[in-house]
Amino acid sequence: MSSRYPRHDLRYVQSLDGVWDFAFLGDIDPDSVAIEGIDFTDSMPVPGCFDAAPRYAGRRGLTAYRRRIYLPDEATYRLVFDAVHHWCRLFLDGVLLGEHAGGFTRFSFDIQGHPAGEAELTALVDNRFDEQRSPLHLDYYDWYHYGGITRPVTLHRLGNCWIESLAVDVAQLDPPEIHLRLAYHRLDEPARVPLSISLDGQELLSEDIDLPVGAGSLERRLRLPGASLWSPEQPNLHFLYLRLGEDDLRQRIGLRQVRAEGRQILINNRPIRLLGVNRHEFHPQFGHALPDAILAQDVQLLCDLGCNFVRGSHYPQDERFLDLCDEAGLCVWVEATGWQHHAQHLTDPRFIQAQLTNIEEMVAVARNHPAVILWGILNESQSHDPDCRPGYQALLGRLRELDSTRPLTYATCYPFHDLCLDLVDVVSINAYPGWYHDEIEDIPAFIDQVVARVEEMGHGDKPFLLSEIGADAIYGWRDWRQARWSEAYQAALLDKVIRYLFVERQRFCGLGIWQFCDVRSAEMVAKILGRPRGYNNKGIVDEYRRPKQAYDLVKGWFTALNRPAE
Ligand code: ADA
Question: What distance in angstroms lies between residue 142's CA and the mean position of ligand 1's atoms?
């Protein structure tokens, strides 16, 4: 299931999830593969990561997935893949449909003119690192890059005229008003068709509209009398239902506005303190392809911890997770894929184009989720290098064009020399005092230096987020001396950080602890940075979500800090 609620009542949609035929082809060139000659000797779940399965653990290469699909009549269809890692090429009955690079985002291919009946869908899927083909999956990132068809797949019958996309923004809170932009497409001839829109079953609009042939769009501003607002404390949701001719779309919405003002982030005009964690989509048995059970458990744990905030580090999250966050009132920082890029990348047109595509695909999936309150890009890239600034300008500029309703940020690890902070609304700082440098008792002084420097550079009028800080702790390792790598050391460090940030200093409007759960690290990082077990062990739960000592400590702090004043 790719959605928590039915998106269509009229449109024919078929889930293609299940077990597909599978072949591991190895280290070969995709251009050399004859599709009809592939020997499918194995099977593989979709969604899934083939290299999370013990048989293919740690293997990199080209693979092939195959299944049969059914087209009820000869019409236009759309195949929607919620994510494939890292690169894929798709064929229908041996004929090329298209290619896509980059995991973590949704893409689609249309099928036209195929006769009714069965057809064979084949996907070549490659998890090898290849900077040319997949510029956003590089071997030095600090997480393991799994491969496969990792998120749900669906087949949609589009017919002659269909709803292409819907963007809903909150235009006004009191009384609530939304602005919506509906994009559509018509194939055969111009026509007058009925458009109706309802909210929770109450009709808001009904009119006939003239649709020309080809792509088009319409905009409407609608009042929603009686609708309740969404907030982390009261995550009220409403269902918009649109019908255009013979197509339809249901979109769940939450009414809220978010903005950065002065040193604060405001939701519905009220300041919010963001308390949360950074989260990778990872589980040892599923890789990035988390089943509903793990997604739901993660959200339960985040709520139990007292979090009201989670950063989707370092790539766009599965929409099923965003659905759960909308329901739980968990604010999400959604981030485009990236990790520690330098000028060589940020001046490379191919890399910038790959980032722009990633950003566009990220916004298309996440924009209607009320939980999403911040957009981020380029984790810890060289924002202190003048050669990188045009890249930051291009990507942040595009993000603002796509969505001007949310604040923008990026996590910098160069707070003393950063050159791009004027481009964002929220200053987000990653720092590891007490772990990679200094001792726990030095943390306050280090944080003070960072704040002083960022203010000196002229950004003191912005909200500050400590977007990463943490320490590794090996699950189960207790130590009288509270040595580094012990659970006690991690707990002591986080205790110091939270107390200083929110009791003693009160300058930061939020914290993202690095990190929610332990995650497997990339082969190269594990080698260079000396990651025990091949893992980044800074989770406050381990990879199986078993709590470390810091769990209860963080829970105590977050719960107390977010308790409403009596
Ligand atoms: C960085 C990075 C994280 C992780 C962390 C660490 O800040 O953003 O992805 O690698 O360091 O554990 O060292």
Answer: 7
